[in-house]
Amino acid sequence: MLQIALAQMRVVPGRPDRNAETMLRCIAEARAQNADLVIFPEMAIPGYLLGDTWEQTTFLEECEACGEEISAASMGLTVMFGNVAVDRAKKNNDGRVRKYNAFFTAQDGKLVAPDATPYPFVVKTLMPNYREFDDTRHFFSLQKLARELDVAAEDLISPVRFTVRGRTYSVGCLLCEDGWSDDYGLSPMEILCKKERPDFFVNISSSPYTLGKHAKRRRVFSLLAAESGSPLLYVNNVGIQNNGKTVYTFDGANAAYDARGVLRLSGEPYEETTQVFDLETLSDRKPAVIADEPESAHIFRALSYGVRLFLESIGMKRVVIGVSGGVDSAVAAALYARVLPPEDLLLVNMPSVYNSETTKGLARRLAENLGCRYVTIPIQSSVEHTIRQIEDAAIENLFDGAVDRLAVSSFAAENIQARDRSARVLAALAAAFGGGFTCNANKAETAVGYSTLYGDQSGFLSALADLWKYQVYDLARYLNETVYRREVIPQATIDIVPSAELSDAQDVDRGQGDPLRYPYHDYLFRSFIERWQKATPQDILEWYAAGTLEENIGCAPGLVAKYFPTPKDFIDDLERWWNQFSGLAVAKRIQAPPILAISRRAFGFDHREAQNGPYYTKKYKSLKATLLGAQQ
Amino acid sequence: MLQIALAQMRVVPGRPDRNAETMLRCIAEARAQNADLVIFPEMAIPGYLLGDTWEQTTFLEECEACGEEISAASMGLTVMFGNVAVDRAKKNNDGRVRKYNAFFTAQDGKLVAPDATPYPFVVKTLMPNYREFDDTRHFFSLQKLARELDVAAEDLISPVRFTVRGRTYSVGCLLCEDGWSDDYGLSPMEILCKKERPDFFVNISSSPYTLGKHAKRRRVFSLLAAESGSPLLYVNNVGIQNNGKTVYTFDGANAAYDARGVLRLSGEPYEETTQVFDLETLSDRKPAVIADEPESAHIFRALSYGVRLFLESIGMKRVVIGVSGGVDSAVAAALYARVLPPEDLLLVNMPSVYNSETTKGLARRLAENLGCRYVTIPIQSSVEHTIRQIEDAAIENLFDGAVDRLAVSSFAAENIQARDRSARVLAALAAAFGGGFTCNANKAETAVGYSTLYGDQSGFLSALADLWKYQVYDLARYLNETVYRREVIPQATIDIVPSAELSDAQDVDRGQGDPLRYPYHDYLFRSFIERWQKATPQDILEWYAAGTLEENIGCAPGLVAKYFPTPKDFIDDLERWWNQFSGLAVAKRIQAPPILAISRRAFGFDHREAQNGPYYTKKYKSLKATLLGAQQ
């Protein structure tokens, strides 16, 4: 009897005007479908990831005004939505005006207050303040409010009741984290159930996509619904939002679980969609089937959506990609070719004397396969000119009148090549083409700064920098086999040894390439970043000594012995990369482009870091001495 | 009778080993001076700004082990210090191991517990979570602990008591923010006083330097001491710490206020110093005199200290600075010349056809005045080569077989020059010289992205990017008049019109320069960033309409009428820069170098932002229509 519309709307962060328009349109559509209740996501009006925009008074007022518009539009039905709520009579702990992450319910043009809060809206109780989240920076929680009012949080957590055609429904209203209460010592759902089991729960969220989160969410919410014995409706937004350094996609994935926890309705990921259903007959529907797809399918969906919306959000219509013949740039090109028409995608190969005919050929073949635009711009003469200019320059010592000359080392010459490609050619070419150029770095390179600042570390977006090298390879195969269903990325590009081709020592035709051994280093670096408690050289060395390293970091067995015949080899490698990871690579990441996040820990605002240099604990040093002593 | 040593120690973030060593040395010195009590800053062992290093188990263990070393070293005296404390039996709200920002007291090798907390240390009660602070991301507050234990915070806030030569002292132990309780609805000092006035208060801090904070701190703490009627000892660290994007200096500024609130002892800013005094005779000392210095003196001290320690922390010994003849690069050069010996500082002028003889001459004169190294490397031929390469390149359309050519616009050519200077010449020159190159952007340019990415927006550190243009000018004069006491920065560099000299339209000899009118734009942009509630175009336009704009943003009266004859001129300018500030400039800041922070709101981790584009509220649009309508 109660017709409910779950609006999986696209929220544009920082655009209350556009979001309110979207909501008004959804309400009109829902009304046309005879919905009694329309539910929008958390922070549907302002968006969620806004940096410190929350400190603009006029922005807060605009959000409030848009909220009032939505409330006014609820004539003849009930609307639930997330918005920021402001109490000008009170302060946040930073001394600024009090702000809540709030859940509003409006019916017939008026707000419907929950049973027992001092406000006509529900206040978010649990505040995520980890990963990319900064909730406690901006919003006052219900727990703090309870303390301020000198009551228990339990006294304030209460259902919202509204009446439709004579029947009154009590709804347990939750905001995102309120449904993930394991670590807070307080469960809003339990508290609500203890008082009087609500007719149903509504969880409105603004929950960024992470690989695997979708499945976990289904497990958790299905269990919560079953335990409570009430249906649970989950409404999340689609779109992209960012924290500057880190760009998140939002997959929506709206869901309706019946009172036994069975998923009966599920929103297509990343689609703007409004699903209407009858609450009374929810459990009569067929269970929703979630396709079991390979990891690459999820990654491809998130990346292509993220890239498309990011381009749209910054108003960029054309893209230049430097293609080397290697796998990273090939995957980037194949990805962008699914997002842009061929005339707006320009691939450029920029050979020096160190680039092999093999890779030059592969770069061109890739462009032919994609049928986009292609150009070759050699860098050799410019690089030689730069080296000559530096070495010929007369450095005057104004303190003693002497004149010095400088020498360009071969390492410095490698970086000159990389910068010549990006900051000189790609940037100028992109400007002339009327677009931007991409950064094609993967997560392993980004982790240890195996890249040149203002060189291959530059670009307007790093679409692959949250993918380990093995995920880039998997994605390359997935693009050929499933997305394009033909070999757009030449097989030789997948098979060739990964190489920067910046010197004679990196000759792909002789099988010489990067110093990174991805099948091991992918997993080593992952343990530094993505592990629940981040691993350090001490952990690594303890696992190495105990023979449990491969198991602990998740790489294939046998690799450690294969790559590192002696403890010294192992330790040299470990220290080399730990020094890079905590040293120069941090400096590079500070100036790196935004990263499209897919993992459970992405560089940037998610994995926050200071430029403090590497640290080795006393236990590490002692174990190292033991292992090296044992060797001699 | 109680001899107290206040250790204004340098804390190296992320280096518990080095910090513990420093502390052991201080304890030995204090013991030699017959001190009974030695006090170290907050987080003296781990450092404070560490990003997510707090998630490394081994790092936490190392800090605990170092803490135990310090406790063990307290034989025969009492030591107070800040450290992280870990409770492995409990969780933080993110599910990770419980961590506290803790205040330890050790005497004769053993910890001295406060009267009434469940731990042998004091837990920080108030958690700053604004600006650059992320306390609640990592640490569990005493308020949360009280809630968990189902007691009032008042029940846990209690003094630490220790006995020296038969007399027992009760000490009110505070961690930094605990002394700044205005906005928290809970004052640890008041609570302590209500129970039983402590013999004295100790506030250990790790408080980053901000222009003006020093004076405010003296006002607040003097008042707190006087109100409580107990002496208050303030111990803060020196050194630098960073959050990646934003680098903070810590000026220490230790202080002892007597029971009437008179400042009796004050640590020299930025000095590593341990001051010993007798508590009983504290109020007999002469009041400490804090010199009244101009703003530039404070800025110079913070910047030169910050630059010196930043270079040291990243192991950089030599620096290259591109000097244009303009004031920003001249101030940067004069600043670095105070930090580095002349043979390690290389100034380089990189003229194109657009650079005047005037500015080329000024650049050289600056280098001569500083007596460092100097070189001229022209960019004209390289820039022409790049433009030719781009325009000559045959773009193959692989979808239709056609070949296209691109044109380089004059705007694109300006950016090519800027990138040629930085990413080609400066980066290669710095590598050959064995050092890094600086970014000389000021805060006004940084605010609106009046800079080129991978061009003048690059470098290893932006030492001036938290200074408005007027502060750069003031600093230029201060350097000449007070630091060098001679004209190292040529007066003509100060007098000349600011210009990027990237095109014919920017001819300094004809008085043509930047589109920024600093005397107004400095203050307009400051209102977007530094105002307590950030200003937006709506605020600006409302003030403009009310005739109160200059007063509200703090610029000189009369400027608005002078620069903008009509409302349309005013609005065009406002929208131009607001679009830049919230648009492309954000993208540039994401990839900008770390900024040395001095203001109350610096770009980076302090002023967090998302790349969401400009927003204009409905009220703004309506007021704009009114103003423009009125004009027609």
CATH superfamily of the largest domain in chain A: Carbon-nitrogen hydrolase
**Strand element count of chain A:** 22
Amino- and carboxy-terminal Cα gap of chain A: 80 Å
The protein's oligomeric status is homodimer
Q: Sketch the major β-sheet of chain A.
A: 7 strands, mixed
Largest interface: A-B, 127 and 127 residues
Q: Given the C-alpha coordinates, what overall shape of chain A results?
A: globular
Low-confidence stretches of chain A: none
- In CATH terms, what is the architecture of the largest domain in chain A? 4-Layer Sandwich
What structural class do the secondary elements of chain A suggest? alpha/beta
Report Rg of chain A: 28 Å
CATH topology of the largest domain in chain A: Nitrilase/N-carbamoyl-D-aminoacid amidohydrolase
- The CATH class of the largest domain in chain A turns out to be Alpha Beta
Helical amount among residues of chain A, as a percent range? 25-40%
- Total number of distinct structural domains of chain A: 3
The number of helical elements of chain A comes to: 22
The overall pLDDT of chain A, averaged over residues, is 96
Strand content of chain A: 15-25%
